[in-house]
Specification:
Elements: E1 2-7, E2 14-24, E3 31-34, E4 38-40, E5 45-50, H1 62-67, E6 71-80, E7 86-94, E8 102-104, E9 108-111, E10 116-119, E11 127-129, H2 137-149, H3 157-160, H4 166-179
Antiparallel strand pairs: 1-5, 2-3, 2-4, 2-6, 6-7, 8-11, 9-10
């Protein structure tokens, strides 16, 4: 499981700087992810945060995500190498804006006609729904290791039992906007 956001610039440029994402929750400490110091923006970049034991999302199921009160703040600070100009971009995502079981559609493809790779910016905000259990990464890892211990491929009973119908999740998502009331973030 992972958390993704996509970054792209319309101009071809080499940006020197740091991409940082922070998770902020009321009354809890920040979790900071440093994504690297040099990014080459010839193509759009998908920033991926792998959800593992150290991730603040590790124990969150799809239902928990809908009811949680947090904000992910993503910032990009850098310098355009060719001009020396500073650039800064900032965005944030509330829990109810994060889509479970989705990934970004591929934007880069090889053009046999032009014999080169091309970026299709029409796909910049397009998402693909994927199959994914609704349980937390922690529960999924536990179910997978239980299956290995028993000599099975996977014992996903723990996660399957947590599945809800799509309409149930969508209904909860609509209500989730009422659950998040900013409190000085």
């Amino acid at each position: 499981m992972c958390f993704q956001c996509i970054i792209g610039m319309i101009i071809d440029t080499f940006t020197v700087g740091v991409v940082v994402a922070k998770l902020m929750r009321p009354r809890l400490t920040n979790f900071t992810v440093h994504m690297g110091s040099d990014l080459f923006f010839v193509w759009p970049v998908t920033v991926v945060h792998k959800i593992n034991e150290e991730s603040p999302f590790y124990k969150m199921s799809a239902t928990d995500m809908l009811q949680a009160k947090f904000e992910v703040v993503a910032t990009l600070d850098g310098t355009v190498e060719s001009t020396g100009m500073s650039t800064n971009a900032k965005t944030s995502y509330l829990a109810n804006e994060i889509l479970w079981a989705h990934k970004f559609e591929n934007m880069v493809s090889y053009s046999a006609t032009h014999e080169c790779y091309e970026a299709n910016y029409e796909n910049f905000e397009k998402l693909i729904e994927i199959e994914m259990p609704l349980c937390s990464a922690e529960d999924f890892a536990a179910a997978a290791s239980d299956g290995e211990d028993k000599g099975e491929d996977k014992d996903e009973e723990k996660c399957i039992g947590d599945r809800r119908s799509k309409t149930s999740i969508e209904a909860k998502k609509k209500k989730s906007s009422e659950l998040y009331k900013p409190q000085g973030l």
